[in-house]
Design goal:
The chain has 176 residues and is mainly alpha-helical. The protein is built from seven helices and two strands. The protein has three domains: 55 residues; 38 residues; 63 residues, no CATH class. A two-stranded antiparallel ribbon has the order 1-2. It starts with 15 loop residues before the first strand and ends with a helix.
């Protein structure tokens, strides 16, 4: 009596498998991959009883996976893919920047432009008609309280406003 040995104890000696699940197991892939391969042109398909012949499927699977490695995108497809990738990167960066700005605002590091415009407009309204230092000091004190400025910030603001007032009055007198 003649005997023969398999290549390995787990080698699949079957010639046909009855289901996609078993075909996927024999090929070492997922059932979804087998379902997708069945949609591709040139696939081995099934035999009359609905089973799958293993050798043609192994060859098809091998050529398919090797073909993916060797496949190079054409110039147009490569450019489209790169542009899509760049758009995704820009969107991700924009979302990250927006989140950082919102966090800075929550930490009190940023102030809305509308709030600053309102405060400056009110301050300029108070400044109109002021011709002496005491009124400027009063206006800066009120603004410092409103903006919750430190003593150093208030002093810098006072120096700036005194210079502004002096320069402003000089420009007005030059024109008038």
């Amino acid at each position: 009596m003649e005997t023969f040995a398999l290549e390995s104890p787990s080698a699949d000696v079957r010639r046909f498998v009855p289901s996609r699940r078993e075909l996927a197991a024999a090929l070492g892939c997922h059932e979804k991959t087998v379902a997708n391969m069945l949609l591709e042109p040139g696939n081995p398909g099934t035999v009359a009883n609905g089973s799958y012949e293993l050798e043609p499927w192994r060859a098809f699977f091998k050529s398919r996976t090797e073909g993916k490695d060797a496949f190079a995108l054409g110039d147009d497809a490569r450019e489209a893919k790169l542009e899509h990738r760049n758009v995704l990167i820009r969107e991700r960066k924009a979302r990250a920047e927006k989140a950082e700005l919102e966090a800075a605002k929550l930490r009190g590091e940023l102030v809305d432009v509308a709030d600053v415009e309102k405060t400056v407009t009110e301050f300029c309204g108070r400044l109109k008609g002021i011709h002496h230092r005491a009124a400027t000091v009063d206006a800066v004190n009120a603004l410092s309280v409103e903006l919750e400025l430190t003593r150093d910030q208030s002093a810098k603001l006072l120096l700036f406003m005194e210079k502004f007032h002096t320069d402003f009055c000089a420009k007005v007198s030059e024109r008038g």
